Amino acid sequence: MFKLPEDLESKYRFVTLAALRAEQLQAGALPRVETLSRKHTVIAQEEVAAGVVGEWREDEENLEGEPDAEGEGEEEE
Description:
Layout: H1 11-26, H2 40-50
């Protein structure tokens, strides 16, 4: 069990953020923490517990601080 970060108000929020981040990791995002685990769900929980994952807002496509996986660094003409 991971310690709930101070900026999160509930365990439900922790689980929700970790689930969203795990989806990003499964889609190919790189981990933001060093870990021995290979499981995306565990890595995501470690990231949320470490405070390296930002807040999720309904109007955003990604967690704050996570660049788009598609078209990263490319501009459409």
